[in-house]
Write the structure tokens for this entry.
Amino acid sequence: MTCPSVSDEEENVWSVVSKLDSDVLIGRLTQVSGENVSAQVHGPDGAYVCYLSTYASECQLGAAGTYTITASLYHGSGVGSYRLSIESTRRPSMCVRLPATFFSFTSTGHTGTLPAGLAARCFSFTQPTGTVLHVADPGGNGDVRGRILDGAHQPVCPVGDTRQCTLSQPGPYRLLLGEFYGAESSYTLKMPRISNPVGCPAVPLAGFGNPGAAVGSATVQYDEITCHALTTATAGAVVVRFNQHQNQHLDWTMYDAAGQRICDEYTNSRHCSLPGPGSYTLLVHNRHTMGEAITYQVAVTALHSNAGCAGATATTWDQPALLVHQTSGVQTNCQPFQGEAGDRVTAYGAPTVYNELSMWLVDQAGTPLCTEWSEEDGCVLPATGTYRMVSFLRYWETDSTDLTYKLQVRRLSAAVGCPTVTPGSYGAAPAGALGGIRCRTLDIPAAGAYLVQAVYADNQPEYAKVYDAAGLRVCGDVHCVFPAPGRYTMVLAGNVTTKVIDNDVEYAVALLPKAPSGCTPVSDAAHGQAPHQGTFAAAGQYDCLQLPSPAGARVVRVQAGDATGAANPEITVVDATGAYVCDIYSLRQYSCELTGTAPFSAVLNAPSEAPTGAYAVGFARVDGPPACPVLPRDATGVEVTTGASSFAACFSIPADQHAARESFTWTRTSGTGDARLSVLDATGVRYCGPTGYSVDRTITCTLPAGPVTVLLEADGVDATYRLTHRDGTTPAT
């Protein structure tokens, strides 16, 4: 009803006759214009029952009879108009009957408009008790909400947001629908039945490989659903695949015939276990953030079957990588292999062109194995039998016809097919010569620490992992402690399952005791003697030089400033046990304190991209009383001559011949190249430098009390330099 005018202290009284005891009314009073209007409901005896407002209010009545609604201006002055609407939940004024076809997935639903101010619109329907419905958001231009009541007039499910509704109590059922704020709004009711569904096109259960005609397709609008009927003759796991991009915007859920959720995309992305033979429903929901319709393809592949699998592969390391073809955007591939209980197996896969590869291991029932994160690599097989590596490429453009990727299925435990390497010697070609196959068997004669390094022909290192006979990780590369003598397996990028390394990729393996032996003795007074000269003859070669310096001494490396490639080797200093002491950075930028057990050795290897060539390197002890000639503190200074075998000069300055701040100048007087300068105190700590290389330069250093050592390093070319120093606190004249 609409009241065009109520003014001042006037009261409008409306009567409502309830023919049922304990009826529940839904009432709404909607302001049309003017001053605010309020209304109250009173019973036959005049007792207050409820208050009506713009929002739909529920009024619990008592005995059947006549109830009054009194409407008046809230503030008692002015003029206002309003609408008043009342509906009974137990005996509605009218209910729209929803036919059986309404609950089919092919139904377009029921569309209508709720007029402004309406308390509720009623719909009635019957369905078997236990029916599961997919109740879609009614949509419209307002906030349309409602609820479903069972045969006892009790709430069963809300209506508003998209949700499932189980009709857990007997019907018949009523659905009461309204707009939350009382505004006019369109709506569309859709409640397809998930249990024993009707209208779902069948999607056949596919085998591995190209699914052919066993593909479902549909177009689904934003926030709507489609469905597919699936039938299986046996229990088992399946995988649900959508074509590229669409699965980014689609959610899927699998239900059984009773409408019970079996699995969904988020918790069962790799597999869905169908508990028994029968019919299932795949429900697809479009949640595209841009509100777009999506046309998709979907295939459901039986993981518990070998149908469509490739031929069985062995797990030995010397067989070539498999080239797998994918000719459909919803294809799932299968690579079977035989395994024994306790075998630790791993797999490596990589697309031949850019893509993303998904792969996982399943048992004979199709159940994924080893899905949880582990510190160990590979997967231990629980029983003897046939296993399958399931895989597919995720990206599939519309113009794709045949995409490929490589796959390696390998056994980490008791690995077979790996060439054997025994420890080699420093100063010689690596123990494992250049050759193919991703793994090596390391034959270790005694427990202890070893240097293990794999390098390609250009000396570029490839990281590797080392495993014991059970396939458990022992160590990474470079530094490996073997707990006992025996055979171990080294695998290039052993834990990088996204990388395939073919058998024709050649690399060398250096396998050496970390405690060096047979090292060439060298001097630690390189400033006064010719540097040590050596040659790297092969990729992966390591040389070692024995230093005469005792424990506690500090040494630096001296080398020609223009040395490049193999002439500029990597250097690591170790003690007699092979324990790390320092590296090239400390030797070049600071100084290396020799800690640990003497004698100490410098281990050298050529840098990446420069596997072979000659080098010249020296070492200078820089702690203790300076053993170098004194650098005069006059204008003449000293002249330093450099060349290919003489590129470093050392001088000392007594404590009484330098200030707290001292300036040093070097100038090239003949030849080519440039030089750099460092100043160290009596303990070997570098106070200044190393500076940048320059033809001539003056630097000022803050020096400690006591004697200091000055080290000038030049390029390995013929040249002469003039080196002087003076008090840095006095301006130059």
Residues 584-589 form the longest helix (6 residues). The domain at 638-727 is CATH 2.60.120.380 (Jelly Rolls). The chain is about 0% helix and 50% strand.
